[in-house]
UniProtKB/TrEMBL annotation:
Residues 370-398 are annotated as: Disordered. PROSITE patterns: RESPONSE_REGULATORY, SIGMA54_INTERACT_1, SIGMA54_INTERACT_3, SIGMA54_INTERACT_4. InterPro entries: AAA+_ATPase, AAA_lid_NorR, CheY-like_superfamily, Homeodomain-like_sf, HTH_Fis, P-loop_NTPase, Sig_transdc_resp-reg_receiver, Sigma_54_int. Residues 135-364 form the Sigma-54 factor interaction domain. It comes from Myxococcus landrumensis. Residues 1-112 form the Response regulatory domain. SMART domains: AAA (SM00382), REC (SM00448). This is Sigma-54-dependent Fis family transcriptional regulator. The lineage of its organism: Bacteria, Pseudomonadati, Myxococcota, Myxococcia, Myxococcales. The keyword Transmembrane helix does not apply. Keywords: ATP-binding, Nucleotide-binding, Phosphoprotein, Transcription, Transcription regulation.
Length: 462
């Protein structure tokens, strides 16, 4: 915390200490630079006016670090030009005096979540880059995909990634990001189907203070806050037609017009779109704009379903088991040969995501380090499965076709989405509703392919 007024430093220290944060405050730029020279700073909150220096000096010192912390600037002179300059220099956001305590608390929470996401991206890059070909697959079709990833990664062209649900579209989008010159910058996945039209535009393009109820301050959208990184528009086929028109102009002009603003702001981020829909069919049906389709479809990267990736199932299963063995502290975990043969024969309607969940379940529940066929669901073993039929209350009658794993996964997913809806999209509150820690909640979102919803809109709540 950097402020030349002692009273403000003490006030903010007390406020943030109550939220459980470890806070160190300093009076000026020199002391801030000395503090930043040490490791362990995740977030800097600095007043814009600091006597002989300014918050921009602190921002530049923070951005010069190898692993820069997020920076939030406080100013009593919240002009659009100051905001644009701060965002261009790499600030996460800024807040105007006088500010509401809840407004600052949510801003700090959001900034730290972005910091955590960036650290996770860095870890993922370190783990996946050396063997990313293994993680994606080594079948002939996936080698073609990987070859195309290598070609498109260095450029800035818009890429459209298509494929069935669970085929790994986000993984490939991350590979494009990490193999190019944007790897040191944020990768921000965003689910276009998760929000209504107004909130969707605010999250993508930003908004000015007072643009709508609850807009307590000006905020940059994802396209601007990603800096020189990458924004992944997942489920782009679900985007409302009115927003499609605006997105088309944004991609053509490389500028966004925040909601409620009369001026445009340039952005540098690369855009990767993804969908499990056939956009050509959506265009013919009038549900997707043809001009936007051609703008997104500069380079198309189609992911095959797992059933068409000969030899990849065993490879991916072994990869996922290796990761689970590390997480569980069981280095001896391995598949029996007949188990891998069964996995290769199964069609996997849920694709790679279903395989990953299946391996996780087998590794977690098995008492033996050797995972035999009995650790797989009945459908994979070629056995018939019971179906739940109406029976006595509290005692379901089981019949042919029932799949307990799928039933439990579907139920968990419904509860996750219901909690998100009741919490107004604020994930910390959704986690509380389910009695989960935020980290556990994030893990379950990732398990069900909902990681693209990690950057939720910040709402103050009642």
């Amino acid at each position: 915390m950097v402020d030349d007024e002692l009273s403000m430093r003490e006030y903010l220290e007390l406020l943030l200490h109550r939220e459980g944060y470890v806070v160190t405050s300093v009076p000026g730029v020199k002391a801030a630079c000395e503090l930043l020279s040490r490791d362990g700073v995740d977030l800097v909150i600095s007043d814009m006016k600091l006597g002989t220096g300014s918050g921009l000096d602190v921002l530049r010192a923070a951005r010069a670090r190898k692993e820069p912390p997020e920076v939030v600037l406080i100013t009593a002179f919240g002009t659009p030009s100051a905001a644009v300059e701060a965002m261009r220099e790499g600030a996460y956001d800024y807040i105007c005096k006088p500010f509401d305590n809840e407004e600052l608390r949510l801003l700090v929470q959001k900034a730290l979540e972005k910091r955590l996401l960036r650290q996770e991206n860095t870890t993922l890059r370190a783990r996946l880059l050396p063997g990313l070909g293994v993680a994606v697959g080594q079948s002939t079709r996936m080698q073609g995909v990987w070859s195309l990833v290598e070609k498109v990664a260095p450029g800035r062209s818009t890429v459209l990634v298509t494929g069935e649900s669970g085929t790994g579209k986000e993984l490939v989008a991350r590979a494009i990001h990490m193999r190019g010159n944007r790897a040191a910058h944020p990768f921000l996945p965003f689910n276009c189907a998760a929000l209504n039209e107004g909130t969707l535009e605010s999250e993508l393009f930003g908004h000015v203070k007072g643009a709508f109820t609850g807009a307590l301050q000006e905020r940059a959208g994802l396209l601007v806050s990603a800096g020189e990184g990458t924004v992944m528009l997942d489920e782009v086929g679900e985007m409302p037609l009115a927003t499609q028109v605006k997105l088309l102009r944004v991609l053509q002009e490389r500028k966004v017009k925040p909601v409620g603003s009369a001026s445009e702001v340039p952005f540098q981020a690369r855009v990767i779109a993804a969908t499990n829909r056939r956009l050509e069919a959506e265009v013919k049906a009038g549900r997707f704009r043809e001009d936007l389709f051609y703008r997104l479809n500069v380079i198309t990267l189609e992911l095959p379903p797992l059933r068409e990736r000969t030899g990849d199932t065993s490879l991916l299963a072994s990869h996922f088991l290796s990761r689970m063995a590390e997480e569980l502290g069981r280095p001896g975990l391995r598949f029996a040969p007949e188990t891998l043969e069964m996995l290769e024969r199964y069609s996997f309607p849920g694709n790679v995501r279903q395989l990953q969940n299946m391996v996780e379940r087998a590794a977690t529940l098995s008492d033996s380090d050797l995972l035999g066929p009995s650790t797989l669901p009945p459908a994979v073993r070629g056995e018939t499965e019971p179906v739940v039929r109406p029976g006595e209350p509290g005692e379901p009658q089981l019949g042919v076709g029932f799949n307990l794993e799928r039933h439990l996964d579907d139920s968990e997913r419904r509860y996750l989405l219901a909690a998100l809806k009741q919490a107004g999209g604020v994930k910390t509150r959704a986690a509380d509703l389910l009695g989960l820690s935020f980290r556990s909640f994030r893990y379950r979102l990732a398990k069900h392919g909902l990681t693209d919803e990690l950057d939720e809109p910040v709402r103050s709540g009642g």
